[in-house]
Amino acid sequence: MIILLVEDDPAQLRPLGIALSESGHLVDGVEDPQEAQWLINNKDYDLLILDWMLPIVSGVSLCQQYRALGKASPVLMLTAKDTTADKVVGLDAGADDYLVKPVDIPELLARVRALGRRSPQWHGDLLSLGDLYLHISTLTLERQQTSIRLSSREFHLMEYLMRRSGQVITRDNIEQTLWTWGTEPESNAVTALIWRLRQRLDELDAKSWLETVYGMGYRLKIPEKIS
After folding, report:
1. Can you tell me the distance from the alpha carbon of 82 to that of 95, in angstroms, rounded to the nearest whole number?
2. What is the pLDDT of residues 110-137, one digit of tens each?
3. Among candidates 214, 226, 223, 217, which has minimal Cα distance to 190?
4. Which of 106, 143, 196, 227 is deepest in the core (most CB within 10 A)?
5. Per 3-state DSSP, what percentage of the chain is helix, strand, and coil (rounded to 5)?
6. Residues 125, 136 contacting (CB under 8 angstroms)
7. Distance (Å, rounded) from C-alpha 152 to C-alpha 9?
8. Is the bond preceding 102 in cis, omega lying within 30 degrees of 0?
């Protein structure tokens, strides 16, 4: 998934970010909650992981702001507060789950997997769109008994498009999502990535599923006539 991780202690941010990345997720890890405010306003995420006790802007406030934008992706709170009253405050602010510090990495990864399965298109290890299946753990795309292995970048783009099937996704959306915070892709990187993914879909007779919406961006959808 594409995850925003907000933790002001670098000694905790780094190992959490590494663990999530090694599990196959794209992670924007930030220490500054004001940077996090900009990101939740300008970038799409599949999951937010927020430290409760942030300076200036608390994790609870970030969660409230995120929900006020009408965004529905799950929010996991990391907190040293473990009383029932504190948990109620976090849940009422819009959080979906909480994990008490110190964070146990295997438990964190299990919570992340559980929250990821809330996607309406998720079926166990699969994301599906019609008879097109994306296997999360193996980075493979399957259709009509044919499967192909995707590169990491191709996989993340395919996952992003499948989770938002039918929506028009701009080039800026793709750049901001697939390249982590603080990195800049080359000018033709998105065009080249879309071309490569179309070639992979062509191997499954599904090239037409990835449309160019001229002047706007790209859209993945099931065509009216399926080959």
Report:
1. 14
2. 888 888 776 544 555 678 888 999 988 7
3. 217
4. 143
5. 40, 20, 35
6. yes
7. 29
8. yes
What three-state secondary structure class fits 213?
strand
User: Phi, psi at residue 99, to the nearest 5°?
Assistant: -135, 125
| pTM summary value | 0.63
Query: CA-CA-CA-CA torsion for 90, 95, 97, 98, nearest 10 degrees?
Result: -40
Mean pLDDT lowest among 86-95, 113-122, 199-208, 218-227? 113-122
Residue 92 has pLDDT above 70, yes or no: yes
Average pLDDT over residues 174-179: 80
Q: How far apart are the first and last CA of the chain?
A: 29
Residue 116 CA to residue 125 CA, distance in Å, equals 10
- Indicate the Cα dihedral angle 58, 96, 104, 178, nearest 10°: -80
Residue 22, pLDDT score: 84
Question: pLDDT of 146-157, one tens digit each?
Answer: 999 999 889 989
- The closest of 48, 86, 87 to 67, measured between CA atoms, is 48
